[in-house]
Structures are given as structure tokens and as C-alpha cells.
Amino acid sequence: MSCIDRSLSGLQALESVERAVIKIGGDNAGRLIQNANQAINRLKRGVESILVVSAIRSSDENYSKFSHESLASDSGKSREKGFNTTSHLLEIAQRLNEPSIDKKSIHEIIDRIGAFTLEVIEDNVGNVHESLPAIREIVTETITWLRTQVDHFDPESDKIFKLGEDTFIKTKDGNYFTVTGFGEILAEKIYNTYFKSIGINVGSVKTEDLPNRAYDSSEDPEAQFEDRISREKSVLAVRNLVSKRVKSVLKNSESPKVVIVPGYCPALAVNRGYSEMLAAVILAELVKDNRDKVKTALLVEKKVRGVLSINPGLLANPKLAKTVDAIGWDLAEALFGAEYGADAGVVQSDSIPELEQADADVFVFDPENLAEGKVTHIAKHNFRPGGVEIIQPRDGAILEFKYSGVRLRKADREKLQGTFKTWAETKNLVWIDNNSSENRSVRILAGPASQKLTSQDIEELQALFKSEDGLGEDRISVNYNPEVSIMFGLGNNMSKPSISSRVNLALDALSVNRLDLGQVGQQALWYAVDKKREDEIARGLYTLLINTTEEVFWQKDREEGGLESLLDKA
């Protein structure tokens, strides 16, 4: 079992660590002052910081003015408040891959990235801060570099490759440069410049050349990526190179310092969120080769509010899927849940096996409330590689928005979700949304049991939907069921349907009426079941999926009543 301790305050957690690996992402990436102050506080306690920085972004509506129209329309693309640098880079990558390339429009998107970046930084540090001239210079220089790469791109001789969400260009001379990883590279340069300007002893790790190290220039990178052996070589090359560079900076330091690493890692991860994966890899490599016996831990400084989206289609190519090692309920709650730690200490799922291998401490907490805030301390990891584990059920609730029209269009569905999200945020609620496969409904999965809705809440929400322009006066009804439990089946591998099939066959053997909530990323299946049967269902699933080998499971499944007989013996 994982050792979960929630007795520590943030300050106590820091006092037990000598070196911290920290992923800085989301809106937090643009908060230079806050992150610098936290790094300084750690240095005062003798704690070195390795900051893995994501692309700078903001969900503040004031920055929506910088978003390109192609990302702020009703064209079916995600509409985000504020500005998301990575989304704009993905748009650039897509346009470079079109038969007729409009470089003028790409330049406009690049300029918007630069303008947003400068404004969000100025708003954070103040427009008269002594570091601003140097920051403006480095932003302008780096944005100009990206424009130059686009100008030199020749579709006749250069090639563009998309592996998952990672898009990069291979030039005619065999060199690679990343498009989607540009945001992380820019963020590292900004952090490096600002930290030095305020006197922080900072070291920097460069990653621009990682695609060249990950993929052989003489071969097709897509073929290398899909070939298991070639991909493993690529992953090993990236791991070794990044960890070697981090260790070199630490070794050359005369005093505790801050190391800044762009959160871009080709081959290691193909989905967005690869900065968290890189942070976990750096942690694992430092712990594995810890000759100086430095107490190293991962600090998850993350505060998530609002609606977290379930997206079962994150990985388009099932060949690239992999099993995420199964974990227990306490650990899952600490990583994915909303009750402890930093309200919702979400760790990117691909990083979990890295944390297991490192067997290092993980602290999940809100950095703005160190003294009094709750901290989740995950001390030991005990995963079952390749297995299926059913997490003990938790209280939940289902909201179903039913639409009496002929068909619920995607734009209408987004209206419903947006209205609900705004309403939930005003009440400080954490929920998870789930688009049903039906055109006439949208389901929302409730958060912690303490967030149960009252009849007054439902009436208020119903009134909001009725006032929604374009959906019709009486076409939306809200059904609420608070008497459900949420079951998780972890260890799912999209390339091995047998694993998810076992979960469903086990539920069938238990005669469970359930609502399939879909798949979370690549690693988990979610179900809503009758709360009155939660203990019985949990015991039955453990019997069939954990205490029964896969070979015996399939043997019994072929027999009439075979799975049921296993339950009778339990």
C-alpha cells in the first residue's frame, strides 16, 4: 500500500526536502514574481529547486483579445478564455501542414504569441521593473527566431511530422526543430532572464536540440516512433541527455541554486502535459543516481478549480498507448482528487510509473497557503504493472441535462457546459464533465460528497438554462441523482481491449446497472453505480480482477456461470 500522510503543513514538507523538482504550468507559469519568491524561500531553507516550466498561458478574459480568430470561433475548435500559447502553436503546425501555406497568417499568430507574452509578464512584474528591457529583448529575439524558421520552411524539401501532439519540422539538411515545444523554450528563457535580474543563482538546461538527439536524421521519425525498439532508444537518449545536463548544472553549483528546464520532451510523451512527465523523469533519474545522498522530492504546486474535462480520445493512435501501472484509491485521490493537497493535485497520468520507479516522496499542496494548508505526502508507491485495479468507490452524483429538441448541436452542448462551469465556479465547486454519446444530453459527474446540490441549486441552474439564448424556453431539463458511487478501473490500455472487457464482464457477472462515464485519458474507466451496492460491487471486482489471474478469468468466462462461481467461492 502507498503511505499517505496528510499531517504536514507546507512548511514542514519543505523542511524535510533538500532538493525539489517542481512543474510550473497552467496560469502559474506566467506568475514570475510568485514563483521567484517561492524559489527564494526554498533557497533560504537550503532547498535547491529544479523548475520544469510549461508554456506561459492565462485563463484571464482580459487576454482573450490576443487569441487568434481561428481559436475563438464557433468552428468546432476549443474556445478558451484568455490565451493559450500551446493551442496557437498547434494552429501554426496545422497551417504548415496545409497544401497551400499562408505564411502571412502564421506570422500574425506568432506576433500574437509575442504580444500576449510581453503583456502578461508586464502585468505580473510591473511595467517599470528593471528586468523588463532584458525580457523584452529575449522575447523579441526568440519570436523572431520562430518567424525565421517559418519563413525558411519549404514544403518541397522540408518535412513536417506530427507524433501525437508533438509537431516538429525536419529540414532538408536533416535537422529538427519543434513547433509545439516552442512555448516551453520561450518560457525557460524568460524565467532565466528574470531570475538572474533579481539575483537568484540560476542555472539553465537547454532542450532545443532534443528532437535531433531523439530521432535519427537518416530515417523517417514516424517509423522510428511507431517501432517499439526504435522508440525505446529515442526515449533513453532523451532521458540520459536531460538528466546529464541537470546533474551537470547541479554539480557545478557552489551553493544551492535554481535550475530551469523547458518542459518539452520529445519521445517521452506525445500528449499535452509533457512538462509534468519530464519533471517525473528528472526526479526518477536524480534519485536513481543519487551519489550525494540528497533528499529529493517532487513538489506538486497546483490548485485546480472548476470543470476538468474527460477526453477519451486523447491518443489518436492506439499503437502508442501503454498501460499505466495500477494504483490504490488513496494515491489516486491524492493525485487526481479534489479533497486533499492543492484542492485537486492533478499529476499527468504518464508520470505515475516514473514516480513508482523513483520511489521518491511526492508532496501535493497549495504554495499560496504553505503554513496552514493541507499537504498530501505520498511516501511509497506500490503499483501492479499491467494490472487492473478497482479503486474503492467514492460518493458521487450525476447531473444530466436533457434537451427535448430534435438534436443537441455541438455549439449548444458547449453553451450548456459553459453555463454550468460559470455557475459552479461562483459556488466554488469542483466537478468533472462528461459528454454523453447521446445527442440529447450532457452529463456532469459530481465532485466530493460535500458538494451535493440542494433543490434550490437545481432550480437556480434550471432557470439559468431556460434563459440561455438560442436553446429554447423549455427545452432543457435537469435531472439530478446524488445516490451514486463512482468506481474507477485503473490500468486500462487502449491497445488491449481485453483489459477494459474484463472490467465490463466483471460488472455483468455482478448484475450491475451502471452508467459508463467513459475513459479518463488512457489509464482509467469510470462508472457510476448504485450507492447501496458499492461495498458488494467493490468486493466482487477485487475478486474477479485482482485476486483472479487473467488466464483463470478468461477460462471461467467461457464456462456457463463461470465468473459467478468465482464470486460464490469468495
Brief sketch in words of this structure:
By secondary structure, the chain is an alpha/beta fold. Helices cover 40% and strands 19% of the residues. The protein folds into 2 domains: 18-294, Carbamate kinase, CATH 3.40.1160; 389-569, VC0802-like, CATH 3.30.2130.10.
Q: What layout of secondary structure does this protein have?
A:
Elements: E1 4-5, H1 10-15, E2 19-24, H2 32-44, E3 48-53, E4 57-58, E5 83-84, H3 85-96, H4 103-125, H5 132-152, E6 159-163, E7 166-170, E8 176-178, H6 182-197, E9 202-204, H7 210-214, H8 221-226, H9 228-251, E10 258-262, H10 274-288, E11 296-301, E12 306-309, H11 329-336, H12 352-358, E13 361-365, E14 376-378, E15 389-403, H13 410-426, E16 430-434, E17 441-445, H14 455-466, E18 476-490, H15 497-509, E19 514-520, E20 524-530, H16 534-545, H17 550-557, H18 562-569
Parallel strand pairs: 2-3, 2-11, 3-10, 9-10, 11-13, 12-16
Antiparallel strand pairs: 1-14, 4-5, 6-7, 7-8, 13-14, 15-17, 15-18, 16-17, 18-20, 19-20
Features of this protein?
Carbamate kinase; alpha/beta; VC0802-like; 18 helices; eight-stranded mixed β-sheet; 2 domains; 570 residues
Structure description:
By secondary structure, the chain is α/β, with parallel strands linked by helices. It has 2 domains: 18-294, 3-Layer(aba) Sandwich (Carbamate kinase); 389-569, VC0802-like (2-Layer Sandwich), CATH 3.30.2130. It has 18 helices and 20 strands. The protein has helices at 10-15, 32-44, 85-96, 103-125, 132-152, 182-197, 210-214, 221-226, 228-251, 274-288, 329-336, 352-358, 410-426, 455-466, 497-509, 534-545, 550-557, 562-569; strands at 4-5, 19-24, 48-53, 57-58, 83-84, 159-163, 166-170, 176-178, 202-204, 258-262, 296-301, 306-309, 361-365, 376-378, 389-403, 430-434, 441-445, 476-490, 514-520, 524-530. The protein has an 8-stranded mixed β-sheet, with helices on both faces. Strand 19 (514-520) and strand 20 (524-530) form a beta hairpin. Helix 4 (103-125) packs antiparallel against helix 5 (132-152) and helix 15 packs across helix 16 (534-545). The longest helix is centred in the middle third of the chain and has 24 residues, at 228-251. The protein starts with a strand and ends with a helix. The model is unreliable at 73-78, 304-346 and 383-387 (pLDDT under 50).
